[in-house]
Amino acid sequence: MALTRWIFTSFFLFTIFNSYAQRDFDENLNREIDSLFSRQLPAVAPGGVLLIAKQGKILYHKAFGNADLEHSIPMQPDMIFRIGSMTKQFTAVAILQLVEAGKLSLQDPVQKYIKNFPGKGHTLTIEHLLTHTSGLKNYFEINNPAQQRPTYTPAQGVDYFKDEPLSFVPGSQFEYSNSNYYLLGYLIEVITGQPYEQYIREHALSPANLAHTSYSNPNSPVSPMPVAYSKVDGKLEKASLQEVSTLYAAGGLLSSANDLLTWHQALQAGKLISDTLLKKAWTSFRLTNGTDAPYGYGWYLKERNGQATIEHAGSTDGFQTNAVYLPQSDLFVTTLFNGFELDMDWVVLTNDVIDLVFGRKPYVLTTAQLQPYVGTYTYNKSYQMVVTLEGDQLYIRATNPKSRLPNVQLHPRSDGFFFIKEAELTFSFQKDTQGGVASMASYYRNNKDVDWKKEK
How many CB atoms lie within 10 A of CB 130? Predict the structure, then answer.
């Protein structure tokens, strides 16, 4: 049952099932976006930047809030942010460049290049790493005191997690793990003889003409960069930034909104890899059971407003970012924030902007409409879900600690269908012949998970 293994993750996107026509960018839409972003920003960060482009043309690019609260410095549209896991697409492109150059194959086992990497009883390929289907455990979620240190070389970073047993047979499941891309960064170094930072700069950033994108270096601060903040117990405080050697090829880059658009355009123009490989990177990986993973090579593949999306979010201490591309509309949206918070409001805000562009506004239910959903829903004696009404908002929690679902808010997409901000969990409620609620079904990444019966 997915709920029993659910963990908070910063790499998810909400999916809806109805199609909406894109609105024209006029003063009304601009004002609505201004209002939406300003209204929801305080839940996310002190400041943020939003860029929207269609067919390569920037339609909207503004900054909101503060870059520095202490000195009341406003956020600026050209500011530079840590982009966290959005780094993964740069690492993936670097690997695909090496494929094109004939220096490796996607089906090569990792041990071909890293001789001391344990075999683990299964073939572990480079493609498994790219698609998060390797079974390697996320190094942020393991404890290895013997290998712990304040900073890491890439080889030391790999040593930290390499001896952990696999979570599953490679290729059989999708499970997001930063270890995959840390290992890919080390592979780039082993194969090219260049440090990851140097290879990325010379073969990705420079050809794409990214003047404001770089590998994070605390000894060489970049400017203009906002102050980083984290929300702890509901209060903002200056963030202590993660040591960059723990992020490395999984999350160590800095960038700006303009550069992220330029990067996207360079990919589409064929400046970095061939159209064939880009198409493959933007295609879901097929698991051994015949189902599609929600991931390609460095990007999530999802759906919104009835359209396919190619996207990735990033989250690291003090910064959170997101970029979503809708190829059918040729629409690119990116958001960058100088704050870290756990409840994923930054991704929700990005998606709310997209919904607004497509004419879909947040769905609102009255307290009277919400009341029938209140109750206890049972799967079996060990697993129950409790839905409560607090003020004018619905909340849901799991009674079993193994489900790792604390009391979180349910947000309506329609009367009877809700989502949460914290993970890719949605809930569909079924009514009885009298109009009361009889049961609930939970969905994990749009796949049905569990049916829950409402207690009388």
Answer: 25
Q: Where are the domains of the chain?
A: 10-362, 367-454
Fold of 367-454: Lipocalin (2.40.128)
Rounded distance between C-alpha atoms, residue 300 and residue 176, angstroms:
10
pLDDT of residue 239: 96
Please confirm whether the linkage preceding 109 is cis (ω < 30° from 0): no
Give residue-wise pLDDT tens across range 95-112.
Answer: 999 999 999 999 999 999
Neighbouring residues of 178: CB distance < 8 A, sequence distance ≥ 6: 85, 138, 139, 140, 250, 251
Cα angle value 151/157/159 (rounded, 5°): 130
- Tell which residue, 241, 360, 240, 343, has the closest CA to residue 305: 360
pLDDT digits (tens, 9 = 90+) for 231-256: 988 889 999 999 999 999 999 999 99
- Could you tell me the pTM of the whole model? 0.87
Least confident of 168-177, 388-397, 429-438: 429-438
Q: Does residue 10 surpass a pLDDT of 60? A: no
Q: Which residues contact 456 (CB under 8 A, 6 or more apart)?
A: none
Q: Which range among 181-190, 288-297, 298-307 shows the weakest confidence by mean pLDDT?
A: 298-307
The tokens for 228 are: 């980083």
Angstrom distance (rounded) from CA 182 to CA 130 = 11
Cα separation, 403 vs 340, whole angstroms = 24
Fold adopted by 10-362: Beta-lactamase (3.40.710)
Q: Residue 381 has what DSSP assignment?
A: T
CB 200 within 8 A of CB 192: no
List, in order, residues 6 or more apart from 280 with CB less than 8 Å away: 296, 297
d(C-alpha 306, C-alpha 272), whole Å: 30
What's the alpha-carbon Rg for the chain, to the nearest Å? 22
What is the spatial distance between Cα 390 and Cα 388, in angstroms, rounded to a whole number?
A: 6
Give 13's pLDDT tier (boundaries 50, 70, 90).
very low
pLDDT tens column, 326-342: 999 999 999 999 999 88
Q: Assign residue 233 a region (left: φ > 0; alpha: ψ between -120 and 50; beta: otherwise).
A: left
* Cα 227 to Cα 197: distance, rounded to the nearest angstrom: 24
